[in-house]
Design a protein that fits this description.
The protein has four helices and five strands; from the N terminus they run βαβαβαββα. It has 136 residues and is an alpha/beta fold. It has a single domain, classed as 3-Layer(aba) Sandwich (Rossmann fold). Helix 3 links the parallel strand 3 and strand 4.
Length: 136
């Protein structure tokens, strides 16, 4: 399992870097499937299994372009709180929320998007690539 490490591998079968994404998901199987799919689509992928771990890594200087976070995370920090704190660190950060229980986030950061679960990781990757290209 990834345990919060970079999952991207430098190999010939990867396309050009599509961007750097931090996937924050406390359901390990969803996290692994999403991270692997994004990696195959050319993203440099980092994972965190909690909001606290994600925030610690961001405060430690982890460079990302996109925060893809579940709203309902294990532990005291929600994905909404994580996004607010991450945006305070990096105001231009692209944020995408996901949830299987929340259909409309209550405290979204400006310009964010929401993807309901269950989602197709390949479609999410295409959406993130479009957002990264538009933001560049």
């Amino acid at each position: 399992m990834f345990q919060g490490t970079t999952t991207a591998k430098a190999s010939a079968d990867h396309r050009a870097d599509a961007g750097r994404v931090l996937v924050v998901e406390d359901e390990a199987l969803i996290c692994v499937e999403t991270a692997e799919t994004l990696e195959h689509q050319g993203f440099v992928v980092h994972v965190a299994l909690s909001g606290e771990d994600a925030l610690r890594r961001l405060r430690g200087g982890l460079a990302i372009d996109i925060l893809f976070t579940d709203i309902n995370l294990a532990g005291p920090m929600t994905g909404e709180t994580l996004a607010e704190l991450a945006r305070a660190l990096k105001p231009d950060l692209t944020v995408v929320y996901t949830s299987g229980t929340v259909m409309t986030p209550s405290h979204c950061v400006a310009g964010s998007r929401f993807v309901p679960k269950p989602y197709n990781p390949e479609r999410v990757g295409r959406m993130l690539a479009e957002m990264t290209a538009a933001h560049a």
